[in-house]
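ok here's DUF58 domain-containing protein:
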Amino acid sequence: MHETSRADVLEPLRDQRAIEMPVFDSLLGTMRGVRGFWLLIPLATPGAATVSLRGEFTALTMAAVSAVAVLVLGILAVAWLRRRAIPWKALSELAGKSAFSEVSLPPEGLFSVGSKVYFKLPDADDVWAEVRLPKAARLQLAAQRRIWLLGPDEEGRRFLQLPGVLWPHQVTAVPSLPGDAVPLDEIDQRIVPPEEDVVLIAHRQRIAWGLRALFGAGAAALGLLVAIQVVMLVEDGPRPEPGLVIMTIYWLVLLVIGVDAAMGMLKPLPRGKWSELVAIPHAPPRIGASGLAALGCRIQWPDGRWSDAFMSKVDPALAANIWATQRLWIVGAPLRGTTTFAGVPGHAVLGRVRFN
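and the structure:
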């Protein structure tokens, strides 16, 4: 593998509807159907914990605390959704009738303010695009200077997609460049060892932060339920409340399953270079209700032999890249009978693959 080479990656299909992009249609359908479900689960937990409580002082106090918790969480969730969430219905309708258009950005045409990136829209004079991107995506964009744009729709909404990455970002049109915007310095784009891949490092840090925050919230919810039961045990004696027991078991099981699935992603990355393997998928990737994907492949090893590999609960972009290119990039040397990290060099894509 030459360090100056670039990996073949998933790209939208030129002059075809956006939903023709591999796996993109499945992701849109899944996220459009379940986006509200994952919001209601954490919000419902404090309220559900008090459904079976009796009308005593302790129960009323706990109910009041839970109501305040629901209100605060609801306000924060709505505020976050209004600023960050993708309007999946609008995106699905636009993707069903329009195509992505490729845009190359000149070195002097890309600016940033914090997490926001700015560039001139190609279909509008003197109008700038503003899009909020995580650090890994900003670094990838700084290296590639190439994007795919979808839209605008009837309400002027546009969506941005980076090469090799499946998750879209909503674009806002602004009349001018902010005064404090600074040029986004260009980064050399070449395949480097994973420990030097700044995009991979930033993406992994974001995943680790998200996992720790998620389990911190789960542990807090479980602690609240346990505390309520302890108070009730002291106040009322050993009279189990079905609602509390069910919710406690639910969060305990969720945490156990989640820890088992997430611990692998928190492990240190293997050292060494990227290794590229031929990967022939058995079937199209499956997108679960969590928005994560599963994919089984037939892998050709460097010695010419074949074996099976399986990915479960991985970034849909990883599965889509394998499906589109029939190539699997892993971190470090390939070893049979192991589970290791897989991704795409220089792109915000990472997951775990198990070799049989």
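+1. The mean pLDDT is 81.
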